Amino acid sequence: GTRECTLSEKNGECSADSNALSLDASRWSQVGIEGTGQLTGALLAAPDAVVLLDEFEKAHPEAISDVLLSAFEDNGGFKDTKLDKYVPTSRATFIINTNVGSDIVLQQRERIQERSDKLTAKDPLVVQIDQQFQQLLKDLPSSINPFGRAEFRGRVDEWVMFYPYSQSQIGDVARLALQQRVLSYYLHSAPPSRRLAIGWDPRVINLLASKYGGTDGSEGFRPMLKGVDSMHDRLRE
Fold this sequence. Notes:
Number of helices: 9
Organism: Hemiselmis andersenii
InterPro entries: ATPase_AAA_core, ClpA_ClpB, P-loop_NTPase
CATH superfamily of the largest domain: P-loop containing nucleotide triphosphate hydrolases
Strand order of the largest sheet: 3-4-7
Order of helices and strands: EEEHEHEEEHHHHHHH
GO cellular component, one term: cytoplasm
Shape: extended
Structural class: alpha/beta
Helix content: 40-55%
Number of domains: 3
CATH class of the largest domain: Alpha Beta
Keywords: ATP-binding, Nucleotide-binding
GO molecular function: ATP binding; ATP hydrolysis activity
Oligomer: single chain
C-alpha cells in the first residue's frame, strides 16, 4: 500500500494510504531544519516516500547547504537531533517545485501555445528556453537562492519545464470545470426541486478560456475557475 503524509510546521505525520509528502519550503525561515522533526519524522515513517519541496526558492539558502546537500547524495541522509537518529534518504524521491525561470517561459507564451501540441525536446524553441534557463541558474546569487550553487544543481537528476497550455487544452479544462462545478451540482447535489440539466453556448467556453493566465499570464487556471464559480453563484441566487 501507499502512505499519505502531511507535513506541518512542527512534524510530519503519515496515514496508511499514500506515500506523498508535501513540504512548503517557505517555512524554512531559519538556518537548518535538523531537529524539528518536520521532514525527518515523516521520512522515518515512510522512507520510500515521494517528497514535494514546494516554493523552493523561498527556502533559506543555508538550510540547503546544512541539510539537503547531504540528503541528495546517493547514500545520503541527515541527523534528527531531537530524535537522535540518522535518517537515510536514499530510498526517497525528491521533487522540487519552483517559479525560478517562469519569466523565460512567459516571454514565449504565444509561440508555445501556437505549437504546444507539436513541441519536442529537440524543437529549437524548447532548446532556446532550456539554454536560457540553465544560464539563469548559473547566474543566480548563491547567497539568496540555493540554485545558485553548482554543487546543488549537480545533485538534480532532471529538470522538467512546465509550458502554458494550448488553446484546445484550455477549452477542454473549461468544459471539465463546468461539468464538475456546475452541471454535477444540479444533477446530483442540488435539492430535488432545483435539479435540472444545464447546457452552455460554445461562446461560454471561449469566454472562460480567455481568462486563463490572468492579466499577466502567470496565474494559470485560477481566474478561469473563479469565473466558473461566479457563474455558479449567479445561477444559485
